[in-house]
């Protein structure tokens, strides 16, 4: 096989727990020595040592990879330890790392930090808190839809299994307002006027635990209570019932809020009878107004996104090279699907990739805010035997992308 450059990938660990393995991609030369004193052309063992060294220099504080505890695969075939890479890998090929055993993160001296974690809880004086390891994307819907505000999307790393949707909204508002404090054109957010809902526009109570309500990589849409009460366009049939359900959920948000009394008083002063909080507990001697039967104003056809359920693709790797950002999504035997099963939409600052009916489910990678602008008409998606490759043409070739999404989450480096 001819020489050239190949690409070695390790995927993100989705199992959760105490360890996290970030995704990583490293190019390598097929015919040149990869390690000091290594063979030329290099062997599989050389590539293992090379990749682990690169990975650990960047992510060793989170997850430490050891050559003896990984294996390299090209497609479904495992590359033997003593095999020459040129006998298995061609220029442009993707080599995937299969981690046989995760290692604990290492301290600066190379020792495991497991002992320090254990000692922190050795006396048992503090109640053990249930932990999770997941990432969610929170979007302020009215600003995110216009794609003009880079702070409208924030990424949150969730480690506390008891963290609620209401506390996430508070964190979002605090960060959003802090970033806009010197911008007189942007009005600050008031957490008391907001709620959260899912991709399916179902309002989530403020006291709902994020870990039990959403999955790793899910989107959380933050909207005003007024917008949520509308229940979307249209007004009859199922949509009217959906609107009523949204209203009920919104009232639960008020009732379950730990600061509901303050919120009610604040709303009375700011918005009088127009406030949704003001509805909840105002006493009156007036007889209730007669309730009219719902009237259908107009109907519309349901959008495709509202009918089809997608699984969010949260495991991928990407590289930035020669004016392109390439995103690699590992999906064994995806190349067996009909060509029409994989579709993509590209905009100047966003993209959406859909893989339909793969292993009985529809999958979607949706990035509402890319790290930088792209050229939509030159971007595309390619399907290989076991990989979907998204090719994003960079608008500014000299700007390096350090992440796919624009913003970083709390606790991310």
Task: Describe the protein's architecture and organization.
The protein is of the alpha+beta class and 413 residues long. It has 3 domains: 5-114, Phosphatidylinositol 3-kinase Catalytic Subunit, Chain A, domain 1 (Ubiquitin-like (UB roll)), CATH 3.10.20; 131-283 and 293-304, Phosphatidylinositol 3-kinase Catalytic Subunit, Chain A, domain 1 (Ubiquitin-like (UB roll)), CATH 3.10.20; 308-393, Immunoglobulin-like. It is built from 10 helices and 18 strands. The strands form 4 sheets. It has a 5-stranded mixed sheet with strand order 2-1-5-3-4, with helices on one face. A 5-stranded mixed sheet has the order 7-6-10-8-9, with helices on both faces. Strands 11-16-15-14 form a 4-stranded mixed sheet, with no helix packed on it. Strand 12 (317-321) and strand 13 form a beta hairpin. The longest helix has 20 residues, at 237-256. The protein is elongated, with a radius of gyration of 25 Å. The two termini are 40 Å apart. The relative contact order is 0.11. Residues 106-110, 112-127, 232-261 and 271-283 have low confidence and may be disordered. Residues 109-122 have a biased composition (Polar residues).
Please provide a brief summary of the model.
This protein is of the alpha+beta class. The chain has helices spanning 44-59, 114-119, 141-144, 165-179, 210-213, 225-230, 237-256, 260-271, 276-280, 304-307, and strands at residues 5-10, 24-29, 70-74, 77-78, 94-99, 131-140, 153-160, 194-197, 203-204, 219-224, 311-312, 317-321, 324-330, 342-346, 351-358, 361-367, 380-383, 387-393.
């Amino acid at each position: 096989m001819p020489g050239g450059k190949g690409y070695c990938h390790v995927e993100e660990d989705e199992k959760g727990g105490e360890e996290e393995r970030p995704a990583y991609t490293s190019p390598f030369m097929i015919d040149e020595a990869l390690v000091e004193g290594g063979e030329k052309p290099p062997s599989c063992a050389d590539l293992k040592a090379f990749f682990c060294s690169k990975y650990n220099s960047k992510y060793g504080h989170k997850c430490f990879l050891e050559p003896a505890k990984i294996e390299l695969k090209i497609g479904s075939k495992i590359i033997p330890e003593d095999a020459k890479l040129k006998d298995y890998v061609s220029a442009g090929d993707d080599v995937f790392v299969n981690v046989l055993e995760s290692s604990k993160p290492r301290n600066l001296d190379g020792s495991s930090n497991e002992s320090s974690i254990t000692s922190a809880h050795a006396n048992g004086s503090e109640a053990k808190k249930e932990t999770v390891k997941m990432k969610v994307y929170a979007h302020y819907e009215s600003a995110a839809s216009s794609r003009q505000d880079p702070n409208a999307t924030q990424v949150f790393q969730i480690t506390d299994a008891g963290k609620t949707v209401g506390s996430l909204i508070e964190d979002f508002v605090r960060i959003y307002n802090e970033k806009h404090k010197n911008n007189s054109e942007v009005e600050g957010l008031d957490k008391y006027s907001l709620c959260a809902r899912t991709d399916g526009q179902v309002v989530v109570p403020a006291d709902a635990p994020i870990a039990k309500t959403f999955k790793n990589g899910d989107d959380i849409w933050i909207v005003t209570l007024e917008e949520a009460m509308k229940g979307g366009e249209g007004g009859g049939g199922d949509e009217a019932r959906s609107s009523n359900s949204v209203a009920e959920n919104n009232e639960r948000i008020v009732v379950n809020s730990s600061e509901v009394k303050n919120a009610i008083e604040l709303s009375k002063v700011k918005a009088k009878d127009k406030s949704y909080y003001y509805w909840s507990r105002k006493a009156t001697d007036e007889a209730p107004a007669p309730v009219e039967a719902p009237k259908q104003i107009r109907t519309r056809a349901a959008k495709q996104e509202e009918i089809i359920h997608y699984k969010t693709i949260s495991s991928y790797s990407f590289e930035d090279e020669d004016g392109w950002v390439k995103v690699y999504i590992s999906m064994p035997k995806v190349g067996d699907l009909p060509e029409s099963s994989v579709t993509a939409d590209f905009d100047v600052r966003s993209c959406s990739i859909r893989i339909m009916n793969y292993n009985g489910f529809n999958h979607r990678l949706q990035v509402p805010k890319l790290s930088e602008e792209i050229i939509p008409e030159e971007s595309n998606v390619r399907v290989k035997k076991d990989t979907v490759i998204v090719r994003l043409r960079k608008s500014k070739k000299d700007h390096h992308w350090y992440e796919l999404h624009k913003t970083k989450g709390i606790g991310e480096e």
